[in-house]
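To: structure desk
From: M.T.
Subject: fold request, one chain
Message: Could you run this one when you get a chance? Sequence is below, nothing fancy, just the single chain.
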Amino acid sequence: QVQLVESGGGSVQPGGSLRLSCAASGSGFRINAMRWYRQAPGKQRELVAGITSGGTTNYGEFVKGRFTISRDNAKNTVYLQMNSLKPEDTAVYYCNADILQDWVLRGYWGQGTQVTVSS
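Reply: Done. Structure tokens follow.
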């Protein structure tokens, strides 16, 4: 079974930066789109950024040019570079990937990584 492993979360001061990584492990699968979501306490999960297999990206409006999503297909890894972080960016960030395996397309989720922005 495919697993998504996230890393790079932590605590940072306002205006700081973090780089999140999400790597898919396993074999015999093909990754389509990959996305980052986030969920703050008491809030609904929301889309942060997405990237297609061809590299086309889209972002949530709240990002306002601060975040950049990218992927390394050779490593089955997606990244989220987060700059100019704000306290309202505090949330658990989840990696999501559409994965084709045994002719079935499924959505996979990482377990989440905490991002805390505070002074």
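Reply (cont.): The two ends are 40 Å apart (CA to CA). Let me know if you need anything else for the meeting.
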